[in-house]
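> run fold LysR family transcriptional regulator
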Amino acid sequence: MDLLNNLRVFIRVVDCASFTAAAEAMDLSTAQVSRLVADLEEHVQARLLQRTTRRLSLTEAGERFLLRGRHIVEQMDEATDEARGAHLKPAGRLRVHSMSGLGVLITPLIARYNELYPDVVFELTLSQRNPDPLEQVHDVMISIAPELADSQWVAQAVGHLYSVPCASPGYLQRRGVPQHPQALADHQCLRMVDPLYDDQWLFQGAGGEHAIRPAKTFQCNVAESMVKASEEGMGISLVPFYAATRPLRDGTLLRVLPEYRLRERNVYAQYPSRRFLDAKVRTWVDFLKAELPGLFAAHDAIINDPRHWA
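> ok
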């Protein structure tokens, strides 16, 4: 039995004060309306209407049931309207996951998105690993990977990342500027722990491929801490390009071996389904696709400026 539908029929019969009038209003037969009300009474184990040949009247149980029933139907109609409108107007809670460093980078984009869609409330979760899509506790995951494994989630590429080796001017003055990847064997190399890569630094260029395994002088899994260690002169570090731009611009770090870019990977916006796509998910992904390339290009311009090279 469709309890909600039977409830709607019962309310219409009361409002119309007639089975026949209710049937006409709902495009049903009088017999169908009578049966649906009878089924409802059987379900609740109480007589709701007193029927005579001349009129209908509510029983005491029917009056109480009608009051609560109207509230249930109104609440359901409001919930349905809200759900149906979710694909039209961005509103409500948007749960976003991102890798830590990139999450800090996109926070200004969240602020700009909220200016456009103030009814969306962000819940941003940052961690050092991409979560398992099967957990499905996020509306959108901003994932970083050379390529994504197969999953049921929709994935759209929104940008491209890489890392660059950097060191402080003081360190390079003391130890010299390496001119070739193999020269790093004579330097202190600080290791950024990255779950997507093993310990080696793989340099690829016109001269071929060079794999370097830095000694564990210092290692960390947070880019900002690695940058600080490099600024303090501890050695040469491999830093995500977006984390290197501020110290390069400030002159506290210099880019070494500028002809190389390492650990290149893609940035993806992932979400569960295209069907009945929520407006807040759709607009946030579209916003990332429109804004993130420009943000990355601004960082690229600093990274590739020879004034910031050793």
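The CA atoms of residues 26 and 179 lie 83 Å apart.
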